[in-house]
Amino acid sequence: MADDKYQIVTDRLLEIMAKGTLPWRKEWKPGSRTYRNLTTGTVYQSTNTLICMVDSLTFGYESPFFVTFKAAKAKGWSIKKGAKATNLLKFRPKTKEIEKEDGEKTTVSFPFFDWFQVFNTDSIIDSRAEVKIADLTAKYDLGMPSEKERYEKAEAIITAQKANVSYGHSKAAYAPSEDIILMPNLEQFTHVEAYYSTHLHELIHRTGHPSRLNRKMNTDKNSSEYAFEELIAELGAAYVCQEVGIKSSLENHASYLNHWLGHLKSNEKAIFTASGAATKAANYILENAGIIKEKALAAE
Fold first, then answer.
1. pTM, whole model, 2 decimals?
2. Domain boundary assignment for the chain
C-alpha cells in the first residue's frame, strides 16, 4: 500500500533524527553533489532528495546514484542479496471532466503522485557486465564549483528576492507583521556558509507572507504551528543550498527537534507535507533568481 511507503520513509527518518542528526544538513562532497538516476541522468529534487538522504544515511551508501531494477537488468547488472529498494515519488498529472454551473463541461488537471523503486549503485553488482557502473559515473565526477562561484551564486539568489533586510542584529529572524528580515552581519558568523544558509532560511520564512505563498505564520514560539513552519524553512533552505552547493548549517537558531519528532510520530505524511511546502518556497526563491531547475519528479 502507498501509505506503507510513507511510513517506511518516516520511520527511517525518525531513527536518524532520534540520534540528533538532521539529514538535510548535508556536507556536499566533490563529485557527489546531487542524487540522480545514473542511466537517465535525471536529478532528483525536493522530497526525492530528502528520501535519498534518509536511505543513504540508513544504509551507509556513499554513492549518489540510483537506478531502476529494469535499467540495471538491461545493463547486465544484478542486485545484491538483501538490498533494500529506495521508494521515490513520481508526479503524474491527471485530468478530470467536470460540469460548470452553466452546464458546460470542462477538463481540469490535478496533481497526483505515486511511487517507483530504485536501487543505489552501492547495492549493485556489475562484475559480469560489459558496461561498468564506473563507466557511467565518470562523466558526473566534475567536482564542486569553486568557493567563490558558490558564494557569488548564493549572493545573487538573495539579492534577487529584493527583501527588506536589516543587518547588525544579534540573531536572525523574520518578522511577518513588518515583512522584514533581521540578520547579523557576515563577520558575526563562524563561517560564510552559515551566513548564507541562515539568510536563505529566513527568506524561506518570508515566502509565507500573505502577498507571496500565504502560509499560516503563527508567531507563538511554543506552538506546534511555529515549529512546523521552522521545519518548512529548514527543508526549503536545504533545497536552495543544494542548488548552490553549500551546506545547510544554521547558527544562533533554536532547535525544534522534539516538536518535529512529535509531528512525524503522529502523522506518517507530515514530512511530505512539510517538504511539499518547502519545495514551493524554494522554487519561488529560485524562480525569482531566474534559475531554471530540472523537473525531476516525473522521470525515473
1. 0.86
2. 2-140, 147-288
